[in-house]
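Appendix B, Record 12. Input sequence as logged:
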Amino acid sequence: MASPPVLFLKNTRLTFGATPLLTGADLVVSEGDRITLVGRNGSGKSTLLKIAAGMVEADDGERFVQPGKTIRYLPQEPDLSAYPTTLAYVEAGLGPGDEHYRAQYLLNELGLTGEETPAGLSGGEARRAALARVLAPEPDILLLDEPTNHLDLPVIEWLEGELKSLRSALVLISHDRRFLENLSRTTVWLDRGVTRTLDRGFSHFEGWRDEVLAEEERELAKLDQRIKEEEHWMRYGVTARRKRNVRRVDLLAEMRRQKREHRGPTGAVKMEAAQADAGSKLVIEAKGVTKRYGDRAIVEDFSIRIGRGDRIGILGPNGAGKTTLLRMLTGDLLPDSGSVKLGVSLEMQTLDQRRASLDPNTTLADALTDGKGDWVVIGEEKRHVIGYMKDFLFAPEQARTPLSALSGGERGRVMLARALARPSNLLVLDEPTNDLDLETLDLLEDLLGDYAGTVIVVSHDRDFIDRVVASVVMAEGDGRWTEYAGGYSDMIAQRGRGVEARRADAPVRSGKAADAEGRPAQKTKAKMSFKDKHALETLPKRVEALTRQAADLKAALADPALYQGGSSSFSEKAAALAEIEKAIAAAEDEWLRLEILKDEFGE
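Logged structural output:
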């Protein structure tokens, strides 16, 4: 029996100006639920979450919260300005019975000390403080709006583990597919003002959504056919029996009204990149580049060769130096030592994470045309700016809107539109997924797949990295960077671990450590553990033994006499073979990881 809801919204309606935003949205949250709320940018997800939190009042509908139940809401843009420190901000969110130690504990886990002043916080630091504030009370319901925005991979992975351990019910809005797949058990789709619910996690959402839209298209096609039939009858049918005629006229009018008022799914972004000449086969070659700030090594003796058509991802925690490395590779920053050679005929377009190249006072149309009229040239095609705006889901009336009035997601689409309109054979994308909805991410991934040039990406989106890049450059600490073949998941398999965070209470490691008296400390060489060495020695024998067992089972399954004993014998042996093959694959993966580890440690 399902537990009673601790919060529900029923038939929620809200209109901004003359435009209905919510026209019948429902949300039901029971104890321990793990719900993801999905929908296009501008569909009203954040507004619905604010209504659930009691921060916005709907025009119509019902809202119920069980008495005594606590709700905490994480906004997209937290405001800490009224508090002297991050610790004071987090403690202000605690209730009378809450444990005060959790405020400091969570801040430390999130890489903050609690002594930071709001004026000096970056966007990621403000988001981490806000996360500590909503997590510290351990509320009955957590409403989280884009919790992973501006967070690095270590914090995202820590947050996943923390949310899994909580008893709180969760309602999540996020563009991070992997985050949603790992946490959600129910998916609520907000589409054209109403909600549909799938009692399965986000990994099943996209297939279900496509089925719903396909069925809608079929129903609309049937309606079109019925309208044609009724119109034909009106023109050529028998004209006696006036009462029946009037009824059919009314029916036709009703069908036409349904078609006229039908709101189709929000249009998809249409992306096409203007591509320059291919240029040389060599795009970037870095040899022994080093960069230090004071005593701290950001990049230490790093070399890489990037060819035409390569897809490179750069990963690491915040502060590791990803942007510094990227700037050196693209010639924007000179290394302290070493050399960077750029290919000839290189035409580079950059998408920066802070959208700094956007003048907030510029209008949308001028931003896309560089203020040079009403036309955008993509390759050899000349497009009117209004038509190009529509490709990126902007309405014609937004042409003269200043960029300062656009949302974060809209500014992200402007940056994409500008970068893709200009000829290039090298795309440099610094956190391109920030504020983009899932459908736009899908299309960006497709575009990058078709792009003939070279792509370098800095991102904390694990799913995006897995789908887009062919190799990953990973920050190992102390200025060391290593290239791994494949995407994020492949890097984890080869490296044996993810991206580690640097705790706020841990000292910042520089190129040379120092002892208590300030003398340079001797660098301790990392070694494999006894367990790993033993596993490396014994795994080949285990694989051989498992392979022999698999061969015996395959021979037994191929023996016609097996089928005379009934289907149960066959099923048992087939299941045993499947388990053994799975064990062989796992053992081989572990052996490969340990071999890579052995090479890294020089043992």
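The mean pLDDT is 80.
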